[in-house]
Amino acid sequence: MSVTPPNVTVLGCSGSYAKPGGACTGFLVQSQQASVWLDAGPGTLGNLQKHVGLEEVSAIVLTHEHADHWLELPVVYNAVRHYIKCDPIPVYGTRGTLELAQQMCPAMEESFLWNIITDGSQESIGDQQWKWSQTDHYVETMASRVDVGDSSFLFTADTGPEWDISQLGETVSLAISESTFLSHREREGILHLSARQAGEFGQRVNADHLVLSHLAPGESEDDHALQASQVFDGPITVATAGDQYIF
Ligand SMILES: [Zn+2]
User: Has residue 2 been placed in a domain?
Assistant: First the structure.
């Protein structure tokens, strides 16, 4: 029997809106017993289906209600309801996201089983142990940690620098951090991270591998990697849709 090491595939990683040919935030977290779709940003459904069918998705996790992180969901609602006809897919999301989704998915229960997550929520999804921590962002936003055996993955979701990433542990195999802008904008008080701050976050949790995601439109990938590398000791990758990282 082949053993699949726990891994994350990037389905989209553009911040705010998709770059040409890209997609907004989304990841596929796969292990032996589960395939979890983490954030369903616009454009990620097509990329998801390169790897798994909707009927194979164990659960959908939505970090927060901003459009670039979940608005593929009403499309999935129609796909499941009218075409796939699989069992309702478990969704883990905030109350705010649920309230918006209910407006676009009036018969929600036909496609989704919604579970509200808050700061400190935990859930087992197959062999994946999920844990959430509320970040420093404009709306209630949940960073995620996933443990599979000795392997671990952490996704910051969207956050400003005031969130304490160590709420989700002191060590992690793989960290995917938002990295929206460069350090010269840190003084603006925007509730997102600079590349330098993303590097500090990776260092704080002793990540074996740091991946930068959610770069704002027009940002230089090289500049982001350079600024993060000045404060983070390990390997750094700037996310690209289609990348797969073992953790
Ligand atoms: Zn956001």
Answer: no
